[in-house]
Please model this.
Amino acid sequence: MNFPSLPINTAILAEQARHFTEMAHQSISIDQMRLAFSCIDLTTLNATDTVSGVARFTGKVNSFAVQYPEMKNVAAICVYPNMANVVRENLAVPGVHVAAVAGGFPSSMTFKSIKVEEARLAVIEGSDEIDIVMPLWAFLDENYEYCRAEIRAIKETIGDTHLKVILESGVLTPEQVWMASILALQSGADFIKTSTGKLPNAATPEAAVVMCHALKYWHETTGQKRGFKPAGGIATTADAMVYLNIVKEILGEEWLNPELFRLGASRLANHLLSDILNKEITHF
Model:
């Protein structure tokens, strides 16, 4: 399988990452923080998650709309697939999506038929967004056609439900991140996502730069806009601003909305709220 050439010099990726990190600390506006908050996929993916716990978690999103009516709510609540119906049944505010991980998350180490069925059931249970992991075991063996077939099978099964494909960029080289991004987009991904957050290396500015260039290439060659979701280790306002600035500089401000940009996080919401309101907030 032939991939287009990576359009940037990987030797300067570290320098670019430093540039965006420095930018993130120089000027942070209230509007930027509000935007970042509205792009959060508020996530709970713990082995100890329970029905009652996820219901309470969803309740915090409901009560946020009442306590902070001047703020836009988070973009989505992201949970394990068997908890999607709990979120759907308890969610009482419009505009917040229900996202479920599926496809053998987080390792993708199971049979394709099971992955497809898990995604199908997650949609039936109330998910309108599905996050899956590219099968690294196949990708790293350069079995790209298998990866393509699996992603396409899941996308065909879930139809109009948005599909986010996780690359697990922390274990890939920049060239592999580029190839995985292009492969996911060719296979029907609506979003490409950096990481599961379950491995030591999660989202990085370097990977984000490469992935955003892939999205730019895709838009320039097909006319289609697809989304970007960094996830894993994004906890502070400055962390969020790094990725917001990368998207803005490479893809443009038209990408800075929840339809095309998400932040996968569990700790970020309280940090952003605290900085926006200039006092400690522990709502989430």
Remarks:
- The longest strand covers residues 97-101.
